[in-house]
């Protein structure tokens, strides 16, 4: 009997390990800083992530844990909100300033850590402080974990589309 229990425990441990093995820790660094852009002959200094607008696209698989180190080199307070992510047991990583965290001050950094569970598709991340969300944003693409299917017909092709409303009055 004890031997059977031991065998069952071993099998369960192996099962647990194999499901952990299919999930990865995906690590990224976001450098939030000034970016000079020209639009219709007009030069403007905006705040952006890693010098690009939109910011970097993050790609993960369902079950992965995301670690995003946000380094604030901008002159403004900032937080990042992971729009639409369920944040199961990680509500503190959700990002709204003064709700789940104090803003990340200029010259400071903060690491968001959360696991993406039970959702697939394309979401987005954006600043959640004052008007910075107008330029601090990017796509978050969640694919099914290995061996699993999309909960909708598999896309033929993917083209993330991000609309930009660069006007503080839209706040
Ligand atoms: C953003 O820039 C930093 C610093 O150059 C770099 O280490 C990091 O890999 C970049 N992150 C992304 C998501 O591209
Ligand atoms: C970033 O832009 C702001 C607003 O234009 C400006 O006050 C600040 O000096 C700039 N910072 C750096 C490091 O260039
Ligand atoms: C920036 O955030 C800090 C808390 O992290 C807060 O004390 C400070 O008042 C904020 N500054 C501005 C200009 O909102």
Descriptive labels:
Immunoglobulin-like; 1 helix; four-stranded mixed beta sheet; 8 strands; mainly beta; binds 2-acetamido-2-deoxy-beta-D-glucopyranose; 171 residues
How are the elements arranged and paired?
Blueprint: H1 2-21, E1 25-39, E2 42-49, E3 58-61, E4 65-72, E5 80-83, E6 109-115, E7 121-127, E8 137-143
Parallel strand pairs: 1-4, 3-8
Antiparallel strand pairs: 1-2, 4-6, 5-7, 7-8
Bound molecules: 2-acetamido-2-deoxy-beta-D-glucopyranose (NAG) (3 copies).
Residues 28-29, 31, 50, 56 line the site of one 2-acetamido-2-deoxy-beta-D-glucopyranose.
Strand order of the largest sheet: 2-1-4-6
Order of helices and strands: HEEEEEEEE
- Level-1 CATH class name: Mainly Beta
Q: Unreliable segments (pLDDT under 50, ≥5 consecutive)? A: none
Radius of gyration: 20 Å
Work out the strand percent: 35-45%
- Our count of helices gives 1
Q: Mind telling me the CATH superfamily name? A: Cupredoxins -  blue copper proteins
- Could you tell me the number of beta strands? 8
Distance between the termini: 66 Å
Portion of residues within helices? 10-25%
Annotated CATH architecture: Sandwich
Domain unit count: 1
GO molecular function: copper ion binding; oxidoreductase activity
Family: Belongs to the multicopper oxidase family.
Keywords: Signal
Signal peptide: 1-23
Structure write-up:
- Residues 1-23 form the signal peptide.
- The protein has 171 residues and is mainly β.
- It has a single domain, classed as Immunoglobulin-like (Sandwich).
- 12% of the residues lie in helices and 35% in strands.
- It has one helix and eight strands.
- The chain has one helix at 2-21, and strands spanning 25-39, 42-49, 58-61, 65-72, 80-83, 109-115, 121-127, 137-143.
- The chain has a four-stranded mixed beta sheet with strand order 2-1-4-6, with no helix packed on it.
- A hairpin with a 2-residue loop joins strand 1 and strand 2 (42-49).
- It is globular.
- Bound molecules: 2-acetamido-2-deoxy-beta-D-glucopyranose (3 copies).
- One 2-acetamido-2-deoxy-beta-D-glucopyranose (NAG) binds at residues 28-29, 31, 50, 56.
